[in-house]
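Quarterly update from the structural biology core.
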Amino acid sequence: MVDVRRVKLPGVGVLHTFVTADGGKVGVIAHRSGHSDLITFSDDEDGSDATKVSLRLSDDEAHTLAELLGGTQITESLTALDQIPGLSIDWFTVDYEDHIAGQPLGSPAERGIAGLTVVAVVRGESANPAPAPDFKVFPGDTLVVAGSPEKVAKAFSFFRTGEMKPKVAVDGSPGS
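Predicted structure, tokenized:
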């Protein structure tokens, strides 16, 4: 487990750092304005900045980097989870006429679907993992959900119609 140090930078944001196995340091400054700085530097006692590198990232670039660094683990984990009996992981693509289009995602538990999780909302080429209840959903978004097959069907029915009763799909897939 990597030990991450967190330091508040008054008026700036938060600095997260950790030391790599080879003695280098990696840091991310999350600015209050929304952008991030990725920094790397050696832990030399002489204070030399000769090995320091700093790269400013926009919010989208920071999310993309996080996806690239963690994407393989997420994909492998989802593949393993999909093989667990009683667990369904499915994708729901939002259309213009769907009830959820233009609405905040909300909490599945507050809507009577306890035990269902919206793992991510994919919008274009980027993913928004573990979206908050106030995350607004738009046509073209794809919701990645996990839960029992019955709860996934119930959620998909709600996303489409605003009703909590699941409709039986012709091909047996709750996302049809």
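Confidence is low (pLDDT under 50) at residues 71-75, 167-173.
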